[in-house]
Design a protein that fits this description.
This protein folds into 3 domains: 3-104, Elongation Factor Tu (Ef-tu), domain 3, CATH 2.40.30; 125-161 and 173-209 and 379-476 and 500-510, P-loop containing nucleotide triphosphate hydrolases (Rossmann fold); 215-352, no CATH class. Helices cover 25% and strands 22% of the residues. The chain is built from 12 helices and 22 strands.
Length: 522
């Protein structure tokens, strides 16, 4: 016995120590150690030490007060989280022995996923309910060099059955799938096994990744092609939007309604022609003639150009402006407005670093169209090709399109999970293909605040954080700078792993862990 209960509440138990020499007992009183407090004949409350302070009594002798957090009940049947009973003042407080710890963290059919060892007692293995743990969102944070990536790799290896460079599931295939956003190209070696192990890793780098631009939504398209700080950006947006919609209608005539955000094929080269022609357009102002765009010596196409749909085909040469009555002509409404816009479009389209976005090609050399959507989707749903892990190596992706790339992949996977879950529910079946997206170095593309450069990825990841779990998709957010991360968890807190910090308490039944950090409370 180390003391007696002084005060108890649902949030904390205050204990007055029954000894004077703190030095002899401090090894048993470290932050996070477990206490056992009697609350009945066969029941004890288990609490975790949160803090200790010294006070002076009337004789100017130091007395010690300890505050602990109640976490569960232990009885003859074992440990159960939570409690409806609290200890009365003067009840004895003991340090939880090895037999108690064994009951709390025992390995059984439900709590069978190995997460590690207790910080307070290295001999006690910590096993959790893996299904509950991975169906929630997970955060792994720690300073640079603390081992976050190794921790992530080890946890995910346990999930898919990689142990000591071997595949323990060599004769079977689990149905879970993990998608890793690998910013620094460091995870491939952790999931690459010898051929005889029959573990198929789905590895996509900038050379293998095919992510056609026509899958982007309006926000993503505008963020890559339009500079919002230019004075005429509103005109750029209006004409770009019109060109994209008209071109989508041209290539998808079977669709009754096409919008700016409809993920169907359109030609970015033809949109470039359209914008260029609008920038060069000259309109005839001759009396008694219809005021339409007019080209040099091109009477045959003059009628077809009336609605500007032929602007997609090529760049035209327009007649010069004139004030003479016989050849009167003036600039179109956007003549000369889009010089910088056109230059930007040309640079993006022909940038060899962006070929995976601007000019992705199939093995036969053809471009991807709307009919190839299933082939594009299968890149990220490696489970369909018998792979439990997909690594998206983003180290070769230019920084200016990193946010868009992550946004696009996240949105595609979310939409698949959403519709797949609906199909399953319509058949009265359970969604049996769960997904987890691992956001390595998440502070780089999901910041709390920043310019519009991060808006696309932040919006997609936030949507998964808020709505993904109900459709079978969860997040593992890994960061060395959690204070600058967006507020992804608006309702319940996630399960957090603070690497190399003091563990305060863990509820193995719910998979929720709360931690007391030795570092700054921020």
């Amino acid at each position: 016995m180390i003391g007696k209960v002084l005060e108890s509440s649902a949030l904390e138990i205050t204990t007055r120590m029954e000894f004077e020499d703190f030095e002899k007992n401090k090894d048993n009183l470290k932050i996070g150690k477990y206490l056992q407090i009697s609350i009945g004949n066969h029941e004890s409350l288990i609490a975790s030490i949160k803090g200790i302070k010294a006070i002076a009594d009337n004789d100017n002798k130091e007395k010690y007060i300890m505050v602990a957090e109640p976490i569960g009940i232990i009885d003859d049947n074992g440990f159960s989280p939570g409690s409806t009973l609290l200890p009365s003042p003067t009840e004895p407080v003991d340090i939880a022995g090895q037999d108690v710890l064994d009951k709390i963290f025992q390995d059984n059919k439900k709590y069978s996923f190995p997460l590690g060892h207790l910080v307070q007692n290295k001999e006690v293995k910590l096993n959790i309910d893996g299904n509950t743990f991975f169906s929630k969102h997970i955060g792994i944070v720690g300073s640079t060099g603390s081992g976050k990536s190794c921790t992530v790799a080890k946890i995910l290896q346990e999930v898919v059955g990689i142990q000591e460079a071997g595949n323990v599931n060599i004769m079977q295939q689990k149905n879970a799938h993990i998608i890793i956003f690998d910013i620094h190209s460091e995870y491939k070696s952790a999931f690459t096994l010898a051929d005889e192990q029959k573990f198929s890793l789905n590895y996509l780098d900038v050379e293998k990744l095919k992510l056609p631009y026509w899958l982007m939504n309006s926000e993503e398209l505008e963020s890559i092609f339009i500079e919002s700080n230019e004075s005429n950006s509103h005109n750029q947006i209006s004409q770009f939007r019109r060109a994209v919609i008209l071109n989508k209608e041209k290539y998808n005539p079977s669709l009754s309604k096409v919008t700016y955000d409809t993920p169907v094929y359109f030609s970015i080269e033809e949109v470039y022609n359209y914008i260029s022609n609008m920038n060069d357009e000259v309109i005839s102002k001759i009396a008694n003639e219809e005021q339409v765009p007019k080209m040099i010596n091109d009477k045959k196409e003059q009628e077809a150009i009336r609605d500007r749909k032929r602007y997609f085909e090529k760049r035209y040469t327009f007649i010069p402006t004139s004030t003479a009555a016989a050849s009167k002509a003036s600039n179109g409404p956007f003549n000369g407005e889009f010089n910088r816009f056109i230059s930007r479009l040309d640079n993006k389209i022909n940038d060899r670093r962006l070929e995976f976005l601007m000019k992705p090609q199939k093995e036969n050399g053809n471009v991807y169209t709307s009919d190839d959507f299933d082939e594009i989707l299968k890149q990220f749903l490696g489970y369909l090709n018998k792979a439990n892990v997909s690594i998206i190596d983003l180290s070769g992706v230019p920084f200016e399109v990193l946010s868009i790339t992550i946004s696009l992949i996240s949105r595609i996977v979310f939409d698949f999970c959403f519709h797949f879950s609906k199909l399953k529910h319509e058949r009265n079946e359970v969604n049996d293909v769960p997904f987890m997206i691992v956001c390595e170095e998440a502070h780089n593309y999901v910041p709390r605040s920043g310019s519009v450069d991060y808006a696309a990825s932040r919006k997609s990841i936030e949507r998964i954080a808020k709505e993904g779990r109900k459709y079978g998709i969860s997040l593992m957010v890994v960061s060395q700078r959690p204070s600058v991360l967006a507020a992804l968890y608006s309702n319940k807190p996630p399960c957090l792993i603070f690497h190399r910090t003091a563990l305060a308490s863990i509820d193995v039944a719910t998979g929720y862990a709360s931690f007391s950090r030795l570092a700054d409370e921020k």
